[in-house]
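--- STAGE predict ---
source: upstream dedup step, 1 unique chain passed
mode: sequence only
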Amino acid sequence: MDIQLMPIHWVYLVFIGFILALLIKRRDTTMICVVGIFALGLLATETLSGSVSGVFNSFIYATKELMGTIMIISIIVAMSRVLIRTGINETMVAPLTKFLRTPALAFWGIGVIMMVTSWFFWPSPAVALIGAVLLPVAVRVGLPALGAAMAMNLFGHGIALSGDYIIQGAPKLTADAAGLPVASVMEASVPLVIVMGLVTTITAFWFMRRDIKKGTWRSGLIDSRLEETDDLVATDQASKVFISERLKNVLAIVIPVLFALDVIAMFVLNLQGGDATALVGGTAVFILIAVTLLAHRNEGVERVTSYLIEGFVFGFKVFGPVIPIAAFFYLGDSALTDMFGKILPEGSHGIVNDLGVALADLVPLNGAVGAVTLTVVGAITGLDGSGFSGISLAGSIAQLFATAIGSGAAVLTALGQVAAIWVGGGTLIPWALIPAAAICGVSPFELARRNLKPVLIGLAVTTVVAMVLV
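--- STAGE serialize ---
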């Protein structure tokens, strides 16, 4: 079906170009997204008041769409805080340390533990939960601190966050922008996450072993621990809360069992998307309340609230930059009609879909071109060091290309998500590497340098796999 492009289509496309240009220059994109929303509102309503109101309403729309994701991350972080301060996290991880007997076992063991923990707790809290306990063990058996940081980083901020199969924050963002069900994006991402994870971690380990043998390994250690900007990692000893060893041991068993039961329930009850997230979130709330009451006793009621506040501060700190950007890209799909009424031509399925149809008429696209483009776009959106702030763009462009090609929407969306999070989620951008670097006492710039080749090789191989799958 031929769709006649209107000025609003071209304005949307121009602002996508502006956003990409700013991302390449590592500049913030919030302001340009706000201006883009205003411009689209002005074209849609032809009134100044309508376009100004549209900016605020688009923020409300995006916040409503993202609220479940913001909420689950905030609650998980709040629960993580009480586990760190009571020392339950140390007790939970301690039995695993006896398996880390060689440098190789330490690297892969820390990585797998970090990955599993990050699926349930998200990577930043997971670094604090396990890093302080496992790092001394790893160093004692001969794994350099920088190697431990690489393992935590690649498995946590790379593999776990790029799939995000339990909390489902990343696939929610990309799926919404691409107009797809969350489950389809998650399913399509499985082979890509596996390939990216295996290639990157094996390559990183091989480079590390080679350089250590050749004597060219740089430790990356710094004289004093980094002044941590994320207070999840730098938990002050003064804030530790005393509970008995017996109670610690009991809770260290009960908490993992509860989350394991959640995972079983997801499969048995076929819970996906928001339902699965809600189950994990509700479990985390009850764990937070129970542990806080047991640890703080008479002050427990008030402390539950303070932990929740800390979690919400972290959640909105992470998603504050995401909301204006997501608001702009939601307008590329159904949000435009919801907010401004029926202004697109008959037969239109949203700005992005219309552009995809037009693109298919002009340029003969194929799966290979689409896959390479989505990897590049995903990587560019990750240059701001967030990983999340630009994946809506990746989802929108995936929808555009899939419409032009005629297939592969879920695969392209998942590929853009994987590329964006591996680059910006905390494996290549130095300021995004601070949590893992700080807990290991290494330079984030040296950690980024060590990750660069393995991640680029992984992206290249994963892109080839996506070409086949599209």
